[in-house]
Structures are given as C-alpha cells and as structure tokens.
Amino acid sequence: MEEFPVRTVEGLCLGTSLAISGFFYYVYRKKRKTVDKLNDAPQLTLDGKLADLLNVTPGKCLQYVVIEGAVQPLGEPLRSQFQEGTVGVVQKLMLREHKLVWNSLSRTWTDSERVLHQRVNAVPFSLVGSDQANVRVLCPLEASGLEMEIIHEKFHQATYGFTDIIGQYLSGEKPKGQLETEEMLKVGATLTGVGELILDTDRVLKLRPPTDGSEYFLTTADFESLRLEQEGQAVVWQVLASVFALAGSAILFWLGHRYYRSLRVRWDQERLRREFERLGAGGMGEGSTAGDTQEGSGEQAPLENACVICLTQPRSCVLLECGHVCCCYSCYQALPQPTCPICRQAIKRVVPLYQA
Fold first, then answer.
1. Which residues, given as ranges, of the chain have pLDDT below 70?
2. Which residues form the RING-type domain (predicted)?
3. What is the tens place of the pLDDT at every residue in 195-242?
4. Going by C-beta distance under 8 Å and a sequence separation of 6 or more, which residues neighbour residue 3?
5. Rounded CA gap, 191 and 127, in Å?
6. What is the separation of C-alpha 325 from the centre of its chain, rounded to a whole number of angstroms?
7. d(CA 237, CA 32)
8. DSSP state of 346
9. Are 72 and 134 in contact (CB under 8 A)?
C-alpha cells in the first residue's frame, strides 16, 4: 500500500499560507513593539526646564520621548517655487505621469501612475516651545509619518493627434497628462516628534533617531492621533496574520482528515482480507474432504459455484449494490476497475459470502 500523498496544490497552498502568516506576524510584532514604546514614552513640555532635566539625566540622554513645538528654521528657509511668500523647512517636488492602460482580462481601461521626477529639499530646523526653548531636529527625512501640506497641484492635460490615437489603441496605452505637485512643511507649523532626546556639550537640545532601532516619528498630527494610527495598523497586521494562519490550519485539518479516511479504508480492507482468508481456509478444508470423496468415487468436481473469472476458487464475495455473487475475493482485488463482471455496475462495497 503506497504512502498517503500530499498533492502539489495542497502543499503549495499550505506553504504559502504559513509563509505569509509568518511574515504578517513578524510585521505585527514589530508594529506592536512600536505601539508599546509609544505608550511608555514620556511626553515632555518644551520649556526652559528641559535642558536642566537632561543635564541631570545619566548620559544626558532620554532614549524615547514625545515632544511638541513650532517649526522654525535655523537659517534661511526654503521658498516655494509656485506660491509666493510661502516658506518652509522641508520641500518635496514631484512630477507624476497618469495614463490609461488596456486590461485584456477585464476588457477595460485602468488608470496607471508613474513618478517621472521627485526632488526633496530640507534645511536645518528646530522645534520652539514656550520661553523660546528649542530642540534641534536631526535627520528629518529618516522619520516616519512626515506628511506635508500640498501647496501647489496642477494637472497638465496631454494633447495628441489622429495618428497618436491610432498608436495608443495599438500599444494599449493612452497618456492622460502629468500632475505637478509641491509639498512643504511650513515655518510655524506645529510638529510632534518622537525619538531620542540628547543634550549636546554646548547645551543644545537635539532630537534624533533612536540608537536602539526604535521607530523615529515626525508628524503634524497630535500624539494621540499618532498612537491610535499605529495601534490600528498593528490590529490590521494581526488580523491578516490570523486569517492566513487559519487558512493554513484549515488545510492541515483537511489533509489530516483525508489521511484518516485513507487509514480507515486500509483498515477495512485489511479486516475484509482477513475475513476472506479465514473463510477460504475453512472452505479449503471442506473442499479437500469433498475432493477426496469425489476422487475416491471417480466423479468430476461441479463448477456451478466456481468464480467466473478464475474458474478455480469458489465464489466468496457479494458485490454491492448490485448483489451479484460471481467471484472470489482474490479476483475482486485484481479487477482493473471496481465494476461488477456480470452487470458492469459500480461496486460500492463488498461483503463475504457465508454458506451454511
């Protein structure tokens, strides 16, 4: 009896679901660790006492704190290229191409976007609180959650002629135009920073990415909104990991159930085989006695009870559901297809024939 096989599709689905679940769980644990760090992070007031607090702290460093203040440049600010009089400390210029691409599966045109050009400019800046106390912000482009205000947005419509239209239908791409945007973190905007706070040798407070690998945040939203957003993301990753873990468990359950059913079939076949062997051993004993008697009397053995396949063994099987008694168990096992030799009806099960 060959071993129970795992089909290729089942193995692929099982491996994929477990791998994706493991990846989602890893992301969830990482996000959960960030949420726990945010919950434990102290919220400090940016005032004149903050430097004194850092001065008495061991190492003059607080590894993970929350601080809020107004954005002020340390030198000349950045000026908008499109909005006169608008200044900031971080500027992002982006040019994106929009076009329609033909989807042969859905038979529709779908919108596609591609970044043609992107440039980010930044100048040193600090967060200013009460009493003109300030904290210099280091590496702002490495921070997460830095969503800037869109101060300019203009869409340049594409123009094309008749030959361009023909080429678009042949290539399956129709340009819509180019979107030009400018984003800026303005001077005076309220910014919440979460990171490592240190006191430099010249008594300058600095906020930088945590050296222990924790996530660094700069956001224009308040701290509570940031914390709730991170908790929501953690829940999403947890749900995704659970869904794929349940899918993998369902596949494992299905494989185990199928394997159990195959074992039940093996056990039934083995029990049936032993039953037929027992009956065959009894029949051979009776047949030997009858054969000796027939040999002694010189008469030929009758064949009306012989198997219709081998014509040697007695009929010992009842084939169901048709109910024909026509073969021995050895010939039943040797049938290429489970069909009755007499009526060609499918054999659902077989039971031994008991002759009194």
1. 1-5, 279-303, 355-356
2. 307-344
3. 999 998 888 999 999 998 899 999 999 999 999 999 999 999 999 999
4. none
5. 7
6. 56
7. 10
8. B
9. yes
